[in-house]
Specification:
82 residues; mainly alpha; 0% strand; rod-shaped
């Protein structure tokens, strides 16, 4: 097996340069898709939080409604007792 020829410290093996170039190209090609995926995921999370808040508000209003109806029924029944 022949020994590889001496290379000066300033030269880079062409295979290494090709590998680095391929990785850089791959990263630049994938970045837009990853960015849009992050945007969509963030939007979905924000929408789900808004829906959760809406459900919580509806639940609170239902509890208030139940209390108001109960109080109204109690007052109506109290009027009939007089």
């Amino acid at each position: 097996m022949a020994t590889p020829p001496f290379q000066s410290p300033q030269t880079v093996n062409s295979q290494v340069a090709d590998a680095v170039s391929l990785v850089n190209t791959s990263v630049l090609a994938i970045a837009p898709a990853q960015s849009m995926g992050l945007v969509y995921q963030t939007m979905a999370h924000s929408t789900s939080l808004a829906m959760q808040n809406a459900v919580g508000s509806q639940n609170a209003m239902q509890q208030i409604n139940t209390a108001v109806v109960s109080t109204a029924c109690q007052r109506i029944m109290a009027l009939g007792a007089d």
